Amino acid sequence: MNEETLRITRVESQVKVRLAPSVNGRENNPVKKATYAEVADRARSVRAILEERGIRLHQDSTLGKLLRDAENLVKDLDEGKKYDSTRRAIIAMHANRIAEAIIEVRADPAAYLCLERIAKKNVDLSLRLCSQGKDHLWELVLLSFCRNHGLSAKLVDPPDIIIDLAGVNHPVACKKVYSEKSVEAQMRKGVKQLSAQSFIGGIVAFNLDDLTPEDVILEGLTYNETSDFLAKLNAAFIERHRRLFEKYVKEGRCDGVLISTTVLAGLKLADTHFNTMTQTMLWTLSSANAGTRARMSALQMAFDGETDY
C-alpha cells in the first residue's frame, strides 16, 4: 500500500452523537437524540439569528419553508393530524442539520456570507442540484465538525477554514461534489485556495452527499453496518481519483484530502430508527514528507478524540 487512509466515523440521530456499544446484538441508543420539539426550537433559533444579523429570510425560500415545516411538526402531532412518518423524519433531520450549523456560528462575524447564501439559495438536501447555499452549508458543517472534536477552527476566506494545529495555521478548502467529472477542477481550485496566503500544507475537503441517490433513505440493520457501507463509498471515491490526489501531495501542494458523506438512514436494529449518518475519511500518502505526515496525524488524533488542540 502506498497510501494511508485514516477513517473517522460520526453517527448522528438527529443531533451529534457517538456510537454506543451493542448489547445482545442490538445497538443501544446513541448518547444524544432530539425530539421534534427540540428541532422546532432550533428552527426558531435560526430565525432569530438571521434577524439579528440583518439577513432577510423569505417565507417561500427553501430554508424558510423547511423551518416552517419543522416548527409545525409538533403542532401537527399534538392536533393528531395525519402525516407521513418518513417525510416527517426527513424534514426534522434536514432542518436539524442546517440549524446546528447555523447556531454554531451565530456570533461569528466571518459567517455572514455563508448565512446569507444559506438563507437565500437552495438548501434542499434531498435534491441533487448545484447550489451556493449547499456549498456554504458544507463550510459551516465542517467547521462545526472540527470544533466538536476539540480543534480551534475559524472561517477565513481564502481558503475557507483555518485550523490551529499546535499554534500553526492549517488551511482547509471546502468543496461540494455534484459530479465526478468536476473533481479535477474542484481539486485544482481547492489547492489554489490553500496557497492564497502562503500557508504550508492544508487539505481539500470534499463533501459527497450529492453523489448519493436523490431523496432516498438508506436502509440497514445497525449503525456499524451502515457506517461500513458509507466508508466503502468514500474509499471507492478515493480510488477513482487516486492519481489526482497523489499528484498534488507528491508536489507538496497539499497534505491530503478529507472525504465526507452524510445520508439519512433507517436502521432496523437500532433503538432510533431514523438517523442522520456521516462517514468521514482523511487520506494522504504514507510516503509524504514528514511535515505532511505530522499534520495529518494531528488531525486524525483530534478526530479520533485522542487529543485536543
What number of structural domains do the residues give? 1
Gyration radius over CA: 19 Å
Helicity range of the residues?
40-55%
Query: What is the beta-strand fraction?
Result: 15-25%
- Could you give the order of the helices and strands? EEEEHHHHHEEEHEEHHEEH
Structural class based on helices, strands and sheet pairing: alpha/beta
Please give the number of β-strands.
11
**Main sheet properties:** 9 strands, mixed
Total count of helical runs of at least 4 residues = 9
Output mean pLDDT: 87
Taking the alpha carbons of the first and last residues, their distance comes to 30 Å
Which stretches are poorly predicted, pLDDT < 50 over at least 5 residues? Answer: 1-31
Q: Name the shape in a single word.
A: globular
Account of the protein in words:
This protein is an alpha/beta fold and 309 residues long. The chain has one domain (4-303). Helices cover 43% and strands 22% of the residues. A hairpin with a 2-residue loop joins strand 6 and strand 7 (168-176). Helix 2 (62-78) packs across helix 3 (85-104) and helix 4 (112-120) crosses helix 5. The longest helix has 20 residues, at 85-104. It is globular and about 60 Å long. The two termini are 30 Å apart. 41% of the residues are buried.
